[in-house]
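FAQ: What does a ligand-bound record look like?

Like this one, built around asparagine:
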Amino acid sequence: MESRKKLMHAKITSEVLRYCTDFFHRKGFVQLMPVILSPITDPLGPDPGSTVIKTGEIEYLGQRLSLTQSMILHKQIAVKQGIKKLFIISPNVRLESPARKESGKHLFEFSQLDFEIEGGKREDVFGLMEELMKGTVEHVKKECADELHILGRTLPAFSSPFSCYTTHELEEKYGADWETAASLAHSAPFWALCHRREFYDKEDPAEPGHYRNYDLIYPEGFGEALSGAEREYEYERIIARIGKDRLDAGRYAAYLELARDGMLPSAGGGFGIERLVRYITGAKHVGDVQLFRRVPGEQVIV
Ligand code: ASN
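The answer part, i.e. the structure of the complex:
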């Protein structure tokens, strides 16, 4: 059964990739190639909830290069270079603590579908993602009906718009660690707004201390699907945020050089392909849907 399951997960992953890729092409997005090594990558923090123990790095011909943690900074640069709507399916390496082994949703290597829209607003991302989620689930139900049946997974049809809460409301109702409890209390995906996060997520100019960002959360306990935001794009704001986060500005020199005369306003987000497949298949652990498992705390076999 285990090897049969692996084949079913591989087929469903393939259908998810096919649907998502076609969807973004249909909507006029340009598909970019991923970057794997760069002097700059997403700092992934400061985030009190983060358990990434270090950024993967190599030294090559005298340059220190990081393994991509997400394509966010390159997405902003691509928008500045004139690509108005873009997406990338990119490998992300996040060297998570072994304590994440049992979370069911953490991997130290996964594929993220990352997208960005020049001049985009939060609402543009909501509309796009809700259509994509519904479409992907319908597509897999149609193309992989036998697999879903054998896996014992029934997926409800859900309707737009998805429910929307601020993280302040969620914390009040479910406690500081709201994600799993709120996810368990829902049967359809929902949006969680306003997190204190990385420097590239826009702080609301009308309400300092509040952020123009969002997470999409899967229901039934599956937790976070996507994170994204409207972006900080003005040089002074970017510098101020990097300073506030006590990041080493020198590490972002190439990005800051490009940002000096301003990035362009944009919004976007990214979601893990494996987490989407886990939600669709109802797998216990996100590593179960990978053909080559990358679960923190587990030995890598191949
Ligand atoms: N992909 C996310 C974004 O676009 C960033 C991340 O994965 N940390 O905001």
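Follow-up question: can I read anything off the structure? Yes, for example: The CA atoms of residues 193 and 214 lie 4 Å apart.
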